[in-house]
Amino acid sequence: MSEVSRGRGAPDSEKITINLGYVDLGHIDLLVQDGFYSNRTDFIRTAIRNQVERHAEVARSAVRRRSLDLGLRHYTRADLEAAREEGRMIEIRVLGLASIAPDVTPELARASIAHVSVLGVLQASAAVRAALADRTA
């Protein structure tokens, strides 16, 4: 399996939507106006990073315990064909971004992927996602 490099089609972030109370939002706007943060997004990213860092040891322990690949992982057609030819099944366990190449067929995915567990984002064609639905945690 090869890593995905930024700039080769893989986005480096995922858009999320959150709901905040008016008072919390007001506090964020106050801190932005006073120059502590450049905008609301900067504040929210910083708050998330601070919380992730606060729980970093617990997260590292969970990554080891669950045998997760950390970061960006890309599975090519060649990776999956090699696994199939060797008679082995791939366990996709990723914390971050896991992507399956667009030229991977649903049949190849089912023949070579035993399990998919992604904490973050899984990028795959709709057909491959459907083929792996019963193997996705």
From TrEMBL:
* SUPFAM superfamilies found in the cross-reference section: Ribbon-helix-helix
The organism's superkingdom is given as Bacteria
What PANTHER family does its record include? BLL4998 PROTEIN
Q: InterPro entries in the record, alphabetically? A: RHH_8 (IPR041088), Ribbon_hlx_hlx (IPR010985)
For this entry, the protein name equals CopG family transcriptional regulator
